[in-house]
Fold these 2 entries.
Entry 1:
Amino acid sequence: MDEQSLVAIIGCAAVLVLMFMRVQIAVCLGSVAFIGFGYLAGWEPALGILVDSPIRTVTNFNFAVIPLFVLMGTLVGTSGMSRELFRAANAWIGHLPGGMAMATVAACGGFAAINGSSVATAATMTQVALPEMRRAGYDSGLAAGVIAAGGTLGILIPPSVMFILYSIITEESLEQLFVAGILPGLLAITLYCTTVQVLYRVKRSWMPATRRADWIERWKSLKDIWATLLLFGLVVGSIYGGIVTVSEAAGLGVLGALVIGIARRRLTWAKIIEALVDSLRTSAAIFFILIGAFLFQYFLAVTQAPQRLGSALSELPIGPTGVVILIMVFYIIAGMFVDGLAVVLLTIPIFHPVVIDLGLDPIWFGVLLVTTVEIGLISPPIGIICFVMNNMTGDIGLGRIFRGVLPFIGADIVRLTLLVSFPGISLYLVNTMT
């Protein structure tokens, strides 16, 4: 084994060890990258990229989408739209077998469409839907599993923070990534609702019947969600129609969320200032991580690890699709033990060039990548979303939450299989963009 390959392996292993020691992701990536780059290319060039990379990252206009979408999601969460989404979905389908669980999934999908964060979606819907399901007599573990699975939609349905990071690191079209996530997101909602129906037939006592809402209540619930539909159409619709860029759509989203919140008297000056402060903290953390990721890209470039791995994988007798399946299996297993964001930032610079060399569509690969990260968010033993819900509820127990989410992990595996087998699910809307 040559020196470059050995340094690359040691560097990746060092990052993982530091992560397990609970060192911040940005520090893990940046420190290993600086030392590795300095060892191979010299300490003067290493100091140069250490100074240059942060400046270029924080001054890049294209990265403005990060704080804008984060602010939009924070304003939306403060405006109470999640409660209206759940109330509307429950009014229309809550009386069906397992209806309140399906309404929760639908509400998670709707909130994800204006939020972009899986943890925020799950945390918000835990406050909104979990008390209602428990009050209706739903099994607590199942109810928590439904919310945890629905929460993962936050990073798939646009605007998605994970798609933004993938686009920034790989320089792929963010517009296309956002649009590519729409149909897979709808497929996820469909499969989750199908899973609820299967569980209802296995053990009906888990999901007691609830009352049927009258038509007046149903139409009134639709009137309450106009703001959500308007905001989603303003952001995603304008991107799909080619009317604005993603950065402009993010600005429109912030303006729309602000105007809607003020017009409905849901936002006060105190809440707006609080949203701004929270968004600044979150955005600063994301930029810090990105700086570390870009430094790590320099390190990988000097080791030539992506090219070497690409050559090794291309020689395997399994074809391009087989290589993709191998990569997806790696992501699922890694996501069970390491934070999904860390795995993505560590491996995208390695696997993206491999995908390009194999002649595969990088937008399609981005959707597959996010889908595997979704699975990791709810898989034991890490399952960040499950841990968040356990901390918020306290009395359900982490074991019951993991048991409740297992059937939905099965649905995710089915979805991933369909997305790998039929790339058109991800790429159909992309190919029709104006």
Entry 2:
Amino acid sequence: MLGGWRRTHTCGELRAAQVGQTVTLMGWAFRRRDHGGLIFVDLRDREGLTQCVFNPATSGEAHSTAQEVRSEFVLAVQGTVQRRPPGTENPKLPTGEVEVQVSRLKILNESKPLPFPLEEEAAVDEAVRLKYRYLDMRRPQVYRNFVIRDRICRAVRDYLHGQGFLEVETPFLTRSTPEGARDFLVPSRLSRGHFYALPQSPQLFKQLLMVGGFERYFQIVRCFRDEDLRKDRQPEFTQIDIETSFLDRDEFLPIVEGMLVEVFKRVGGIDLPAPFPRLAYDEAIARFGSDKPDLRYGLELSDCSDLFKAAEFQAFAQVVAAGGAVKGLRVPGGGGMSRKDLDDLTEAAKGFGAKGLVWVKVNPDALQSPVARFLEPVKAQLLSRLAAAPGDLLLLVGDRMPLAAMVLGRLRQEIAQRLNLVPPQEFRVCWVFDFPLVEWNEEERRWDAVHHPFT
């Protein structure tokens, strides 16, 4: 197929230092531009893009063949590296100072018209992308995801090997054991009527390794869980699996912190501050309304239950008397929100499970709220508790815990997005520990396992 052609450089490699050299490139025709006498083809491979020039004065045969080239044809070109004419350089490309004056061209493979453009900014329906996955993988942003994943895996392996860990592969065909989801079953050809189970995690195997004296084990391992498809669920996924012997929690957590610091630095050039903050589950729920709190912005929750024990506002007083809680959230400057915005937040709160949402605008001379008159007796304490100032918006939810906090936690996230409070390039990592094992399901009147990182 290549007919003796040998690639000498990638399409992202050429620089001014190679000017005058004869090179051979291979890749895909990303763009083709016919300027009458000259034809320009941007040749792309996984490393980058190089502009190739077809001049009939240099090679009439190559120029003639270039007229047949269309998007995503696979090409082999040979030519001389030259500087681009002054004023035509492309500073956005690493190869933008140079181009290749082509003397030979071979079309290795043709392409049918594409079902969607491969430009990075093109919006393409996901179903179409998946149908033509081999084309989708040529898009720069998709390829970058694979590169990032590869770099993460290398960084993890290098770090853990440096910490004395041994990488061990564990079996995929094993016995079924009770875990958090259903097993995928594989029928055995040799033992008719019997099945293997694909592992939901290597839990038993890594415990055997510890019993066997391996002490420090890790694996970047594929796991399989037969469960309903949801946004945060996948039938198969990859996890970094680690097990150690002779370490307690305070000795183990710094190892994981060091791994994440190394990954962020090597892959993203990001300095992740360590040690990470540590929050107990109850504290995370009380302050942020979430077991995975976003610490990149404020908007912390406050407990206002004691203010409403004997208050005139019976909706809250009854909640507190029944053992529930009243949680409050101050939105600085949120008093400018429209009634439609507040109605949307109220409907969102109901959608999250609350019976309703009390909103209060703090004006210089009074509180503005549908229940303002019921709040007058506790006005001073409420403003003090939430550190409120004129122009702020207060949101209150009264319900059983942890629902009251979690509803405000969801609203906290939504408001932060609306008000652009989330710094997009900032990372704040924390530990959340002491997760409860079970919680009471009010609707079904039974205990349920709490959703946590291991269920």
